[in-house]
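A brief tutorial aside. Many learners find it easier to grasp structure tokens once they have seen a single protein encoded end to end. The record that follows does exactly this for Regulatory protein YycH-like domain-containing protein. Read the sequence first, then the structure, and try to relate runs of similar tokens to stretches of the chain.
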Amino acid sequence: MDWGRAKNVLIYAFLLLNLVLGYQLWNGVREQRDSNLDITSLENNTQRMMDEKQIRVLAKIPTETPELAKIAYRFVDGDQRGKTVDLPAPVDSKLIFSPRELASALKNTLPDIDQYRYDEVASSADVFVLHPLVDGKWPLFKIEMKLLGSNQKIISYQRQAIEISYPEEEKPQRVLSASKALGNLIENFLPEGSVVTEIELGYYGEVFDSDAHLPAAPAWRFMLESGKEYYVQGISGDVISPNTEKTKE
């Protein structure tokens, strides 16, 4: 055996392996940097206002700005918010964190539950809040299905069954970036000492007792540590604070 040649082959193999591992590490860091936009993406005056008002942002600032259209929805069986329906058999509440297993456990009672997403920040120990999904991805905020629990079991639910439609006149538009929406909030709306804990893109739908089709627009939801929430309309940039039920421009 030519040990010199074998040695050279091993050296080249290790060099190639190091190059591959180095590229994977660099690519992973780049993807993480691109997907986790930090507060340096905010404009300088916004960052100064953060310091002056002692506002902290603990949530990741999303970078996505998809093209989304306004939708319409209507309640299928009227407004059923106060009606509680018992499950045929209790379900382990731990399944709420495993969407596939939860859907399997409740498919006979709620066959479309896989079209809902769990909202951890809106939930409590025994009330699990889920929102219907638009296009299977974007949560329709303010429209809720509540799974009610007791002794670590889900025993009943409350549901607002809806039907979503897509008006032909509504064309997809590029949504406002999360950083711009957050900048507007910081400079004009958030009180001193606010802590932003969650930022998510979805749709904002008002709840009215009506059989008519109701409009819903793309919106960024900003949750504060205090429990207060703000929505920034993704097309117009209007700011909505459901706590006061006022729309601000």
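Self-check: The longest strand covers residues 195-205. If you spotted this yourself, you are ready for the next section.
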